[in-house]
Design a protein that fits this description.
This protein is mainly β. It contains no helices and eleven strands. The N and C termini lie far apart (40 Å).
C-alpha cells in the first residue's frame, strides 16, 4: 500500500505563488510515476502535471504550462508542484497520485493510470 499526503495549500492573491508537496510512504517511490490533479467545485478532476520515475521527463497541462513546475526528490520520497502567477481559476482541491504499474518512461495524463491518491489540499486564489 502506498500512502500519499499533500501539504502546502492555502489562500493566495492572484499573481502569487504556492508550493505544494506530496510525501509518499509504503512503497518504492523511485519506481512510480507521480502526478498532480485538481478538482474545482462542480467540475471533474483534471490533470495538472506528471513526472516519470527519475524526474527526467515531465508533462504539464496547457493551463499550467509556463506557470507550474512539477519536480520530485526520490531521496526524500516527495513530489512537488511549484505554482506561480496563480489565477482565480486555479482555485481547486489539488491531489497527488501515484502510478505504480507504469514503465520508467511513463508520464501518464489520464486519471485511470493512477492507483493511489492523496486526500487533497485546498488552493484558493482570490482576485
Amino acid at each position: 500500500q502506498v500512502q500519499l499526503v499533500e501539504s502546502g495549500g492555502g489562500l493566495v492573491q492572484a499573481g502569487g505563488s504556492l508550493r505544494l508537496s506530496c510525501a509518499a510512504s509504503g512503497g518504492t517511490f523511485s519506481n512510480y510515476a507521480m502526478g498532480w490533479f485538481r478538482q474545482a467545485p462542480g467540475k471533474a478532476r483534471e490533470f495538472v502535471a506528471a513526472i516519470n520515475w527519475s524526474g527526467s521527463s515531465m508533462l504539464h497541462a496547457e493551463s499550467a504550462r509556463g506557470r507550474f513546475l512539477i519536480s520530485r526528490d526520490n531521496a526524500k520520497n516527495t513530489v512537488s508542484l511549484e505554482m506561480n502567477n496563480l489565477k482565480p481559476e486555479d482555485t481547486a482541491v489539488y491531489y497527488c497520485a501515484a502510478d505504480t504499474t507504469g514503465t520508467s518512461a511513463s508520464v501518464p495524463e489520464a486519471l485511470g493510470f493512477y492507483d493511489y491518491w492523496g486526500q487533497g489540499t485546498q488552493v484558493t486564489v482570490s482576485s
